[in-house]
Amino acid sequence: MYKIGQFSKLTGISIPTLRAWDKKEILKPEFKTQHGERRYSDAQLQSILQKKPDTLRINIGYARVSSKKQEDDLKRQIDLLELFLAKQGKPFKIISDIGSGINYSKAGLKELIKLISLNQIDKIYVLYKDRLVRFGFELIEEFAKLHSTNIEIVNQTEDKTDEEELVEDILNIIHVFSCKLNGKKSHINKKVAERLLNENYPQKE
């Protein structure tokens, strides 16, 4: 259940309007407490959000890098997304993360999923497909479609070969399992994995 203030923020409908709608029986709260405080249900929230016109839904630009060492690349992604989204002529927001593409607990990704579920996003833009997630992109894409949200890849090509991508994915998986198995030694395994990647696929200037 939502208090009137929470319901107002989530729907974008002002508190005075909600009170007026209650009196006019346009939208009555699910119930009122013994002190007369209005309470709204999740079903009412979803009903209103689904009826909101597309002009009230925003576009999202999502950027991600794997580590703090790549913050320059993160800034580059954000700058490009802001430039691209500004040309769309629609309200937008940038969400960014620093973390592995196989880590699904990142704050930005969780915020993105929540906004999709609340029907507040029209389109999601990412520079590259793997910036959203390494695995499970199609699952998130299907979930987004259920809420009339489209995901668009701005750049269909990445400056990496398929072989390099495969090596990075495998090393990411090894790193996750080594962290779980070795605890305090996980940082050692990470350094070994990074050295292996750099030796076989030196970073391009």
From TrEMBL:
Domain HTH merR-type: 1-46
Repressor listed as a keyword: no
Keyword terms of this UniProt record: DNA integration, DNA recombination, DNA-binding
Gene3D superfamilies per record: 1.10.1660.10, 1.10.287.2170, Resolvase, N-terminal catalytic domain
GO MF annotation terms: DNA binding; DNA strand exchange activity
GO annotation, biological process: DNA integration; regulation of DNA-templated transcription
Alphabetized InterPro entries for the sequence: DNA-bd_dom_put_sf (IPR009061), IS607_transposase-like (IPR041718), MerR-type_HTH_dom (IPR000551), Recombinase/Transposase-rel (IPR051491), Recombinase_CS (IPR006118), Resolv_N (IPR006119), Resolvase-like_N_sf (IPR036162), Transpos_IS607 (IPR048046)
Segments crossing the lipid bilayer: none
Ranges where the Resolvase/invertase-type recombinase catalytic domain occurs: 58-205
Active site: S66
Keyword Glycosyltransferase: no
Protein name, entry field: Mobile element protein
Species of the source: Desulfurella amilsii
Lineage: Bacteria, Pseudomonadati, Campylobacterota, Desulfurellia, Desulfurellales
